[in-house]
Amino acid sequence: MKLSQLFFSFLMGYFCYSLIEIVMRGYTHWTMSLTGGLVLTVLYAMNSRRTMTLIGSCLAGSLLITAIEFTVGFFDNIIMRWNVWDYSDMPLNFLGQVCLPFSCFWFFLCIPARSLCGLMHRRFCNKKAVPIASEQPL
Q: Looking at per-residue confidence, does 56 or 129 come out higher?
């Protein structure tokens, strides 16, 4: 896997997750943008192998995202006291940083993320060059 693939997947995750947060909450935090980039990069690397089923990929992705969310949340909210989010009022939360409802949301978010990873992988690994429209004969 090339560094350019990882960098592109990071940027896609950075901007896509930021957009999701802005649409859902009205704002985002720079650490969440970085977290979205990290998450999609890891999902891209994981899904590039295509050895897992969709359910397995979503389950692994949900666990991975929840673990990363807890790590970032512990740093942002508990250590730095930035109060980026607080799941204390959500059911089955752990220290207010992760909760079961959002872990389930991550599971389902992994479905379009897997599709996006597949599209990026096919684009990067396509051996046949795709001609630019201006280069095609008339």
A: 56
pLDDT higher than threshold 80 for residue 84: yes
Q: What φ, ψ does residue 44 adopt, rounded to 5°?
A: -60, -45
Interatomic CA distance for residues 30 and 17, integer angstroms: 11
**Cα gap 127→26, rounded to integer Å:** 41
Q: State the helix-helix crossing angle for 100-125 and 54-73, rounded to 10 degrees.
A: 120
Contact 75, 20 (CB under 8 A): no
pLDDT band, residue 128 (cuts 50/70/90): low
Nearest to 93 by CA among 118, 119, 66: 66
